[in-house]
Amino acid sequence: MAASDFKTIKNILRKKYRVENGKHFSLADYDPADIGGLSLDKKQGKKLLEKRIQTLNNLQELLYANGKCGLMVVLQGLDTAGKDGTIKHVTSGLNPQGIHVASFRQPGPVELEHDYLWRIHVAVPARGHIGIFNRSHYEEVLVTKVHSSILNNQKLPQWALNDVDFWQHRYEDIVNFEKYIHHQGIAIVKFFLNISKEEQRIRLLARLDNKEKQWKFSPNDPKERQFWEQYQAAYQTAIAQTSFPHAPWIIVPANNKWYAHLVVIECLINALENLNLTVPKPKPEITDSIEQLKAELGEDTSK
User: Fold this and answer.
1) How many C-beta atoms lie closer than 10 Å to residue 130's C-beta?
2) Residue (of 81, 72, 232) closest to 136 by Cα position
3) Domain boundaries, given as residue ranges, for the chain
4) What are phi and psi of 251, to 5 degrees?
5) For domain 3-297, which CATH number applies: 3.40.50.300, 3.40.50.720, 3.40.50.10090, 3.40.190.170?
6) Which of 33, 86, 188, 215 has a CA between 20 and 30 Å from the CA of residue 181?
7) Which pLDDT belongs to residue 6?
8) Is 245 helix (H, G, I), strand (E, B) or coil?
9) HSE on the CB side for 44, CA within 13 Å?
10) Phi/psi at 122 (nearest 5 deg)?
11) Looking at the predicted structure, is the pLDDT value of residue 68 above 90?
12) DSSP alpha helices (H): ranges in 184-227?
C-alpha cells in the first residue's frame, strides 16, 4: 500500500464518522453498511488491522511509561452490534497489565444504593491505563429511557421523577462528568456501533443456528427488536446532547465487522497521538551513574 493511499484511508477512518458537535447531528445520515468508499476487501482490512494493532501497542507503552494521562473508551451498541468482538480484535496485541475492560450490566443492590454515575466513576482508568467500557453510563439515557419503568428501582425521590427536565438533567450530568474526567487528564472517545435492523436479524438467527454461539442468545433479544425505533431515537438524542471535541462520538458502520474494527482502532490511535506522548527521560539517579551501572551489570558480549 502506497503512503498516499494509507494517508487517505487513515483520514477517512478518523474523520468521516466523528461527531464533535451534536447540533446538526442526524443518525439517519450514517449508513451502517458503509466502508468509506475504500477499495479494501475483508482480507486486506484484516492485514491493515494487524499493522495498526502494533502502532496502538507502541502508544499504549508510551501511555503507561508517562503515567500522567489515561484513555477512557466507551462502546455502545444494540444487541449483536459487535462490542465483544471489537474489544477482542482491537486489543489483541496490547499489554493486559495496562488495559481494563468493564462491563456494565443491570445494576445490583449495592449499586442501586448510589447515584447512577457512582459505579462508572469507580471504573475510570488510572493514569497510564486504557479503560474500555462495554456499555456504560449511557445505558441510563438509552435502555432506561426506552423502558422508563426501570427508574422505579433506582430509589429516586418523587420530585426528581416528576421533573419535566429529568432526561435533560441526565444529559447535563453526563456532560459535566466527562468534562471533569477530561480535566483530570483522561482522554475520552465514545463509539456507537451502528448496525441495521436487517443485519441484527441475520446475526440473531446465526446465533440460534450455531451451537457454540447459542449461549449469547437471550429470549429478550427478539422482544427488544420491537423497540428498534425507540432505541434509534434515544441514541439520536443522547449523541446529539453529548458530543464535544473533548468527548467525541464515533458513529461506527458496524454491518461489516472488519471495517468496524479498523474504524475503532484508528480512532484509538488518533486519541493517543493527540496526547503528544513522548519517551520519558530516565531518572536522574540512573543518568548520574550509568557507567557504574554498566560495570555492575557486566560488559555486554552480545554485540
Assistant:
1) 26
2) 72
3) 3-297
4) -90, 95
5) 3.40.50.300
6) 86
7) 85
8) coil
9) 8
10) -60, -30
11) yes
12) 197-209, 220-225
Q: How far is CA 137 from the centre of its chain?
A: 12
The CA-based diameter of the chain, rounded to the nearest angstrom, is 76
Q: Which secondary structure element, helix H or strand E, spans residue 173, and what is its range?
A: helix 166-183
> What span, in angstroms and rounded, lies between the C-alpha atoms of 94 and 153?
38
Instruction: List, in sequence order, every residue forming a beta bridge with 71; answer none if it has no partner.
Output: 130, 187
Contact 86, 75 (CB under 8 A): yes
Quick one: cell of 280? 520519558
User: Is-contact 170 143, C-beta < 8 A?
Assistant: no
pLDDT at 232: 98
d(CA 276, CA 290) in angstroms, rounded, equals: 28
pLDDT score recorded for residue 294? 78
Taking residues 39-53, what's their average pLDDT?
92
Q: Give DSSP secondary structure letters for 1-32.
A: --HHHHHHHHHHHHHTTEES-GGG--GGGS-T
Task: Please give the mean pLDDT across all residues of the chain.
Answer: 92
| 210 or 165, higher pLDDT | 165
Place of cell 471504573: 123
pLDDT band at 2 (very low <50, low <70, confident <90, very high): low
Rounded to whole angstroms, the Cα distance separating 80 from 216 reads 9
Whether 133 shows a pLDDT value over 80: the answer reads yes
Lowest mean pLDDT among 40-54, 99-113, 207-221, 256-270: 207-221
Which residues, including other chains, have CB under 8 Å from residue 264's CB and lie 6 or more apart? 86, 90, 191, 250, 252
- Give phi and psi for 123, each to the nearest 5: -90, -5
Q: Give whole-number Cα distances, 24 to 10, 18, 300, in Å.
A: 24, 13, 62
Which pTM value belongs to this model? 0.92
CB 81 within 8 A of CB 202: no
Using left for φ > 0, alpha for ψ between -120 and 50, and beta otherwise, residue 94 falls in beta
